Amino acid sequence: MSDTIEAHETPSWLLELEANRERRLKARLGHETGAGASCLKCADKCPGLDLHFWRKCCKVCKCSKEEHEVQDDDIYGWAQFQLLGSKPNKIKRKILLPGKNDELELDWAPKGNNETVDRYLKTLPPDQLLVKGSQAALERKQLLHKQIPIHDIDPELCHDLTDEELSKMNDYIAHVKQSSVGVGQIVSLSTIIQGSYTILNFLPELSELIGN
Prior knowledge:
The protein starts with 11 loop residues before the first helix and ends with a helix. The chain has a two-stranded antiparallel ribbon with strand order 1-2. It has helices spanning about 10-30, 75-85, 115-120, 135-145, 165-180, 190-200, 205-210, and strands at about 95, 105, 110, 185. It is globular, with a radius of gyration of 24 Å. The protein has seven helices and four strands; from the N terminus they run H-H-E-E-E-H-H-H-E-H-H. It is mainly α. One of its GO terms (molecular function) is zinc ion binding. Keywords: Repeat. This is PET domain-containing protein. It holds the Pfam family PET.
């Protein structure tokens, strides 16, 4: 019988799970996410992001983390899912603008019926479309980082909470989920109006009341 132990390949799902765990630990312990990212305001004057632990700005140039070119690391996508219950869409939406031959990949698009969303997107000025790498896409990420700070919604990313602090934080998170945040959807106004007319036809007394 051979003494050789066969090495089994680690499943991809387990590798991804471990990678996500490591990223979250780094975000909690060292604020290392985005370390060394170039500053969008200071350019070469800043050697790279060195994030202060609690000031939430670069120790070198004093600009915020959101003003540095930090690559996506799934942390904020995870935070958005935790708080909003809205899983980030892995399939990127593309749009073909009038007069253009090539489709543009969007960094984000609202939820809703595909045809309705496409019609909505084509009504926006080109500089407001969240095209990947555009100024509009960058500004949305900056707003998201401020609106949904990950340390505000996951006790595991906080340092040495007491039992009382943990209980109060969980109450706060539950309140935010229930009363303060939500995910909207793009809908056609004509569909809503048509539905309203249908209700009025079935409820003539309501129609008479509105008419008065």
